[in-house]
Specification:
The structure holds two protein chains of two kinds.
Chain A: H1 5-21, H2 34-41, H3 56-64, E1 66-70, H4 74-85, E2 90-94, H5 119-130, E3 135-139, H6 148-151, E4 156-159, H7 164-176, E5 180-181, E6 184-185, E7 193-199, E8 202-208, H8 231-236, H9 241-256, H10 269-285, H11 293-300, H12 308-327, E9 336-340, E10 346-350, E11 366-370, H13 376-385, E12 395-400, E13 403-408, H14 413-419, E14 437-442, E15 445-455
Parallel strand pairs in A: 1-2, 1-4, 2-3, 4-7, 11-15
Antiparallel strand pairs in A: 5-6, 7-8, 8-9, 9-10, 12-13, 12-14, 14-15
Helix pairs in contact in A: 4-12, 9-10, 9-11, 10-11
Chain B: H1 6-9, H2 13-21, E1 24-28, H3 32-42, E2 48-52, H4 63-72, E3 79-83, H5 87-93, E4 103-107, H6 111-123, E5 128-134, E6 137-143, E7 147-149, H7 168-175, H8 184-187, H9 192-206, H10 215-227, H11 241-248, H12 250-253, H13 261-267, H14 270-273, H15 281-293, H16 314-338, H17 346-351, E8 357-359, H18 364-368, H19 375-381, H20 389-405, H21 413-433, H22 442-451, H23 457-476, E9 485-489, E10 494-498
Parallel strand pairs in B: 1-2, 1-4, 2-3, 4-5
Antiparallel strand pairs in B: 5-6, 6-9, 7-8, 9-10
Helix pairs in contact in B: 3-23, 9-11, 10-11, 15-16, 20-21, 21-22
The chains are: A alpha/beta, B alpha/beta.
């Protein structure tokens, strides 16, 4: 196989094909979109009630429909490919990562020469070069780097993320775009969110119409918090190889600082090697077997094995929903699909319900019930541990005597030091009264969440 | 002498990868669905693929060649080949061509070709996966005579603790514990398995050697354990989490040790009882396990050897774990002597003895035969006229349409309306042939004409992912494949597995 030759040959072949097939200087050769047209131009018994077959629908798809893809990894690559091959051309993709060599066995838009480059840019280049007419715009950024004006321009947003925090943030952003007139939701302010997630052989795909159907936070209990091993086991009573690895990661690394002030990087083989060696030593002390380099990396990176096919299936389901919503050709999924192919193939489709008092989408003021003698620490823990809230590092502010006061904030060191003593103070000591409004900010939401303090006796 | 059955011997993760790297996959028809399937096999690293496709792309480029080049780029370690020939021609001139493959995957094949190829592959014992994307319907059919699964990786498996039939080494180990006289630290760090075993001994001596039988007795047993929690000087029970674990696990700990019915069935099968020079290694190993069960095993499978994690100090946990591990190794050695002449790596088979599975699919000939068609499955599914079964039936009608009209229904706009009644006739004629009395809603027939035999990429990608994963299961003998027909309804995002 002459590797250097192939890409050149392929490039020339694509150019030839494109030249032959171009019609009137455009990209669309005869019959190119036949498989899409059949669903746009023909009536059918299962189409959406609003559906009207017409030839203009294809033009809308090709020239006007704007889709945002979040993530250019395992799911993202599949999503971009499916959307481009289904006729979507105005696609933006956001991803904050660069390509790692371990990505190459799933994320098929990337080649060995692309390692180190931003995923969004390489993915966009690949699609734009291979699928004539497609104009993917990449953004090598975090989703939090954009504000409402960016997100508002899209007709549909589809997520292929591996982080629940990011999902919740995106969810919150789209909810913040909703406008209400006299308490009635303006449908034109709704941007549908299609969300896909995979874990090994399991995956799910869901359709969210913000303000109308269940949002990410409505079903937060479906994402149980990650289980961490108790510290006493790690510190003094290890039994499993994983305990030994966590010992090296959590206790030894900060203590011994083997590479100076740098934090442990799961993608750095030198770091993993160090943790591996220390884990073996620990394990030997307790006669525990089973520590391997691979296990070490898996534990440090919290890796859940990725399977190419699950990403393919879930991305396919998500792309199809984008098409259904953009074209009204069918009634979209209502609203949650679960997929599992460990034993045969299994799917389960159900309608996730909105939570009446959802902290993200319900507009119902959130209550905090605490006795006045409770310490602020308890409130903080509640915000983090409650299954429906699961905040990561909440910052609590309030208004006292007409002035804005920060009760506790973790993310800025100086403020953290200044406000830390507040954690041990009771709510009354802090000057808070029954009915007081607390504004809480957190990475899981772009907007602050308002809570009302209810004193219990 | 025994067939190597090398696929059976490769059991774990790295071994699963070995089977992939030794596999040669044949794909017939490089359509959107076909290339998606192959992409999902090339990326994880199958050894080689060969595309068989007689179609051309633009009059000049053969589809097989174009697809091969594209796919080759994805993984330089995979060897890609193509044959610019229709499968029908190959079946006419050289059916043995297909014997070199680990698995054959065919996409968008006309019925007659599927049946011909199915027959060839069935005789050669080569797994055959038939796939179709038709509008918003996806279809997969697995045809394999006998597929052995060594690692079914069940999502939730019961532990193998043998508390109802403690083996000698465990009983010995148990004697080294005296709960009453232990100090506080040891008492609260004793593994729950030991706790339950100790209290079970007590219970048995007080109840005529009968373990707790019903809910009432299990509750009493839990209380017995609860009473064993140490109390402080004020009589308040201490915080002993290991005892709480014991109480929580009473139900599962008291489960009877027994051989799963699926494995019993395997023990009773023809292949297990008639081991001869043609037997594959899977059956030989299974027979060895059966012989173990009837001798050293005392009617039980070899001990699995793993225990779940639990509250305990390191030493107590490791020691207990070693008791189980050592026993498991002994049992594996015993099984090994039953097949000493033949195989290695039996320790791994023993760990999975209760997870062995065999999947047998009916042949296409049986599915299509007038006398062997699975009428019960069809009629019972169609009690609900919106069951996914209806899509299977209409697909059969579509193939009949193709046979009669040499084209598929509704490909051009002007054909859609008229083809509805034509397709309906075809579907009904198929039903009549099989003497099936089912109600097929007109709306579905209409929708199939609307599809116009299109292959939308999103549906092709869904089938692409699903089919590739099933192919990997077949190649690696890990995880249980579907049996035998999978229908995906992309309109509602639902699916069903049917046995036809």
């Amino acid at each position: 196989m002459a590797d250097a030759e192939l890409p050149e040959k392929k490039r020339r072949r694509i150019e030839d094909l494109t030249e032959k097939m171009a019609v009137d200087g455009g990209y669309d050769w005869d019959g190119r979109w036949n498989h899409v047209r059949k669903f746009l131009e023909r009536p059918g018994p299962f189409a959406h009630p609003d559906f009207e077959p017409c030839t203009e629908s294809l033009q809308f798809l090709l020239e006007m429909c704007k889709i945002l893809v979040i993530g250019a990894g395992g799911l993202g690559c599949e999503l971009l490919k499916n959307l481009a091959l289904s006729g979507f051309r105005l696609i933006h993709v956001v991803d904050m990562d660069t390509i790692d060599i371990s990505n190459l066995n799933r994320q098929f838009l990337f080649r060995p020469k692309d390692v180190g480059r931003p995923k969004a840019e390489v993915a966009a280049d690949f699609i734009n070069n291979r699928i004539p007419g497609c104009k993917v715009v990449p953004h090598y950024k975090k989703i939090q780097d954009f504000d409402e004006s960016f997100y508002r321009q899209f007709h549909i947003i589809v997520c292929g993320l591996d982080s629940i925090i990011a999902r919740r943030w995106m969810n919150g952003m789209l909810i913040s775009l909703l406008s209400y007139e006299d308490g009635v939701l303006d449908p034109s302010s709704i941007i549908p969110l299609i969300d896909g997630g995979t874990e090994g052989f399991k995956g799910n795909s869901r359709v969210i119409l913000p303000g109308m159907t269940a949002c990410i936070d409505c079903t937060l209990e479906l994402y149980p918090p990650q289980i961490n091993f108790p510290m006493c086991t790690i510190a003094s009573m290890p039994r499993l190889p994983e305990h030994c690895i966590e010992y090296a990661r959590i206790l030894l690394w900060p203590k011994e600082k083997p590479f100076g002030e740098t934090s442990l990087d799961g993608d750095n083989p030198e770091h993993i090697q160090w943790v591996f060696k220390k884990s073996i030593e620990r394990a030997a002390e307790f006669h525990i077997t089973g520590v391997t380099y691979r296990l070490t990396q898996g534990v440090v990176k919290r890796i859940i094995p990725a399977v190419a096919s699950t990403n393919a299936v879930i991305a396919a389901a998500c792309s199809l929903e984008v098409f259904k919503i953009a074209s009204s050709a069918y009634i979209p999924l209502n609203n949650y699909l679960v997929f599992n192919d460990v034993d045969g193939l299994y799917t389960y489709t159900f309608e996730a319900e909105r939570k009446e008092n959802c902290s993200a989408c319900s507009q119902v003021p959130q209550n905090l019930q605490f006795p006045p003698s409770a310490k602020l620490q308890e409130v903080l823990e509640y915000l983090m541990e409650n299954a429906s809230l699961q905040m990561k590092s909440p910052a609590i502010t309030t208004t006292l005597e007409g002035k804005n006061k920060t009760l506790y904030l973790q993310s800025v060191k100086s403020i953290e030091e200044r406000t830390k003593p507040n954690l041990c103070k009771t709510l009354t000591e802090l000057g808070l009264s029954d009915g007081q409004e607390l504004a809480v900010a957190d990475v899981t939401t772009p907007q602050t969440v308002l809570f009302k303090l209810n004193f219990t006796t | 002498k025994f067939q190597p059955g090398y696929l059976c011997l490769k059991l774990w993760g790295d071994h699963g990868q070995d089977t992939l790297e030794n596999a040669h996959v044949c794909l017939i028809n490089a359509t959107a669905t076909g290339t998606e399937i192959l992409k999902n096999l090339v990326l994880p690293g199958i050894g080689a693929f060969t595309i068989v496709d007689g179609h051309t792309v633009t009059g000049e480029d053969n589809r097989a060649q174009a697809a091969t080049e594209l796919l080759q780029e994805l993984n330089s370690h995979v060897s890609g080949n193509f044959v610019e020939e229709s499968p029908e021609k190959l079946l006419d001139n050289n059916p043995d061509f297909f014997h070199r493959f680990t698995i054959v995957i065919a996409v968008q094949l006309p019925e007659s070709t599927s049946l011909r190829l199915g027959s060839v592959l069935w005789s050669a014992s080569i797994p055959f996966l038939v796939c179709k994307t038709y509008g918003l319907i996806g279809y997969m059919r697995l045809v394999v005579q006998e597929h052995t699964v060594i690692e079914s990786h069940p999502d939730s498996a019961l532990e193998d603790l043998r508390l109802d039939k403690p083996f000698a080494e465990f009983k010995n180990h148990l004697q080294s514990f005296d709960l009453e006289s232990m100090n506080k630290k040891d008492h609260s760090h004793t593994p729950w398995i030991i706790i339950i075993a100790k209290y079970l001994e007590k219970w048995l001596s007080e109840h005529n050697y009968k373990p707790p039988q019903n809910y009432k007795e299990k509750e009493a047993f839990r209380q017995l354990i609860r009473d064993g929690i140490r109390k402080n000087e004020n009589g308040v029970p201490e915080d002993e989490e290991n005892f709480e674990e014991a109480i929580k696990n009473v139900n599962t700990a008291l489960n009877q040790t027994k051989i799963p019915s699926a494995v019993e069935e395997l023990f009773n099968s023809e292949q297990c009882n008639n081991i001869n020079s043609e037997s594959s290694s899977f059956w030989v190993m299974l027979r060895a396990v059966k012989d173990f069960v009837h001798s050293e095993g005392n009617r039980d499978l070899p001990v699995r050897g793993t225990i779940p994690d639990m509250i305990a100090d390191s030493q107590k946990f490791i020691n207990l774990q070693n008791v189980y591990r050592t026993k498991a190794m002994q049992d594996a050695a015993a099984v090994s002597t039953h097949v000493q002449r033949l195989l290695q790596s039996l320790g791994k088979v023993c760990k999975n003895a209760s997870f062995l599975r065999v999947v047998r699919c009916r042949s296409l000939a049986e599915e299509y035969g007038v006398d062997s068609v699975n009428k019960d499955e069809i009629t019972s599914c169609m009690d609900n006229p919106d069951s996914e079964m209806v899509f299977y039936l209409i697909l059969r009608g579509v193939e009949r349409f193709y046979q009669q009209h040499s084209r598929y229904p509704g490909v051009y706009n002007y054909q859609v309306e008229d083809d509805i009644s034509k397709l309906k006739l075809c579907v009904n004629s198929v039903m009549q042939e099989y003497n099936l009395n089912v109600n097929i809603k007109d709306d579905y027939v209409h929708e199939f004409c609307r599809f116009g035999a299109s292959e939308p990429h999103t549906v092709a990608a869904f089938i692409g992912g699903s089919a590739a994963q099933e192919a990997i299961k077949i190649i690696s003998h890990q995880f249980v494949p579907f049996n035998n027909t999978f229908i995906y309804n992309a309109m509602l995002q639902t699916s069903a597995t049917l046995q036809l």
